[in-house]
Amino acid sequence: MKHLSPEEFVDAAEGTLDAARAAHLRTCEACRTQADSLGALLRDTAAIDVPDPSPLFWDHFSARVRERIAEQPEADRASWLSAGLRTLLPLGAFVALVIAVIAGTLLPRLATPPVVAPQGQVAALEIEPNVDARNNEVWSVLTDAAADMGIEDAHAAGMAVHPAAIDRAVQRLNKDELTELGRLLQNEMKRTSN
Amino acid sequence: MLTRTWRWTVATEPGYKVTVTNPTDAELVDACLAGRREAFDVIVERHRRHVYQLCYRFVGNHEDASDLAQDVFIRAYRGLKNFKGRSSLGTWLYRIGVNVCLNKVSVKTPRAESLDALIGVSDERVATREEDPSEALLRGERAERVRAAIAKLPKKQRATLVLRVYHDLAHEEIAKVLGSSVGAVKANFFHALHNLKKLLTKER
């Protein structure tokens, strides 16, 4: 009968070798010697402990990890975008308004199935006012309203947005909505840097 | 051992709040992703000993093990959004730990434990109450020899042996951690034991 394979030696050392191969092990001295030797080594090796650090070490360890994590950006699901939101727009309420614009005006349009015109009538179709033009109107009203508002004023007015709420809102946006949000933020960045 | 009870209040919906006692790892991950960094402190406290021990098995000294274990948690924090919960958080941390150790550890130059690093680490060469001092010395020396031999094993063999023998991971879990098959893990384990035996025999 064939000798044990490396995998079977591992099974033998761990006591999980199947019955047929265990029968071979009982009759084959070469295999039995090697299996016993591996089993003994396994037991000896397993008995070697890691020296325990002092109890003080663990507090120090946690503190070091905490310090280094404080230097990291937040572990959120859309870190690049929410970090950008926080950096670019200190006015949390303003971000909420941006998302509200998209959710309130753009999303219903994106969700509406396209109207297919009957053949021959294409030339007669009226072009709807484009979404950007509508958004621009709403956008300008909102930016005018928020332009001079400080973060404290926004908080006082109950407009503060928890960072997690921003993250959650951003996560729900689809690719088109994210692109649109990115465009709006870039515009706002240009506007505030002028 | 002291155990700590963790409690915090989570707002589920407007007007509703739930107090979570001893949150699960999954709840802690969610809390971290919702911006509650203190939840990560709990993750660190829960898993730091195992992660440190894993690193120690790779490098064989306290100083490097401490640095590597810190790196493991920093990487875990950065990559928390990628944790899908398909394996336990512990197994996921082991995976990061093995990668950190495999990337940073030089097989040829395992560092010896420095005297400074030994301060604050309980010395296994000190005899226990019932043990003869000479026996304790022999036990300590043997432990050091085995650790040094493990540190000389090829990386994948070392990872397999450490995860199987000291962290009791099933072969299937080790295969996930190392990105290989169960057959390959068992073969690696066999060769790790075989080489370990050769290394220990050579030193005598």
Tell me the major beta sheet of chain A.
Answer: none
Fraction in helix of chain A: 55-70%
**The CATH superfamily title of the largest domain in chain B:** RNA polymerase sigma factor, region 2, helix turn helix motif
**In total, how many beta strands of chain A?**
0
User: Low-confidence spans of chain B: pLDDT under 50, at least 5 residues?
Assistant: 107-123
The percent range for strand residues of chain A is under 5%
| Total number of helices of chain A | 10
Quaternary organisation: heterodimer
In the residues of chain B, how many domains can be counted? 2
| Cα shape of chain A | elongated
What is the CATH first-level class name of the largest domain in chain B? Mainly Alpha
Count of individual beta strands of chain B: 2
Indicate the mean pLDDT of chain A.
Answer: 69
User: Rg of chain B, please?
Assistant: 20 Å
CA(first)-CA(last) distance of chain A: 85 Å
Radius of gyration of chain A: 33 Å
Strand content range of chain B: under 5%
Q: How do the helices and strands line up, and which of them pair or pack?
A:
The complex is a heterodimer of chains A (194) and B (204).
Chain A: H1 6-14, H2 19-27, H3 29-46, H4 55-70, H5 79-88, H6 92-111, H7 131-147, H8 151-156, H9 163-172, H10 175-193
Helix pairs in contact in A: 1-3, 2-3, 5-9, 6-7, 6-9, 6-10
Chain B: E1 7-11, E2 17-21, H1 25-33, H2 38-59, H3 62-78, H4 89-104, H5 115-118, H6 133-151, H7 155-166, H8 171-178, H9 182-203
Antiparallel strand pairs in B: 1-2
Helix pairs in contact in B: 1-2, 2-3, 2-4, 3-4, 4-8, 6-9, 7-9, 8-9
Can you describe what's shown?
The complex is a heterodimer of chains A (194) and B (204). Chain A is mainly α and 194 residues long. Chain A folds into two domains: 6-46, no CATH class; 79-193, no CATH class. Chain A has ten helices and no strands. Chain A has helices at residues 6-14, 19-27, 29-46, 55-70, 79-88, 92-111, 131-147, 151-156, 163-172, 175-193. In chain A, helix 6 (92-111) runs antiparallel to helix 7. The longest helix of chain A has 20 residues, at 92-111. The termini of chain A are far apart. In chain B, helix 2 (38-59) crosses helix 3, helix 3 crosses helix 4 (89-104) and helix 8 crosses helix 9. Chain B is elongated and about 70 Å long. By secondary structure, chain B is mainly alpha-helical. Chain B folds into two domains: 1-105, Orthogonal Bundle (Rna Polymerase Sigma Factor, Chain: A); 127-204, Arc Repressor Mutant, subunit A (Orthogonal Bundle). Mean pLDDT of chain B is 81; it is low at 107-123. The relative contact order of chain B is 0.10. Chain B has helices spanning 25-33, 38-59, 62-78, 89-104, 115-118, 133-151, 155-166, 171-178, 182-203, and strands spanning 7-11, 17-21. Chain B has a two-stranded antiparallel sheet with strand order 1-2. Chain B is built from nine helices and two strands, in the order E-E-H-H-H-H-H-H-H-H-H.
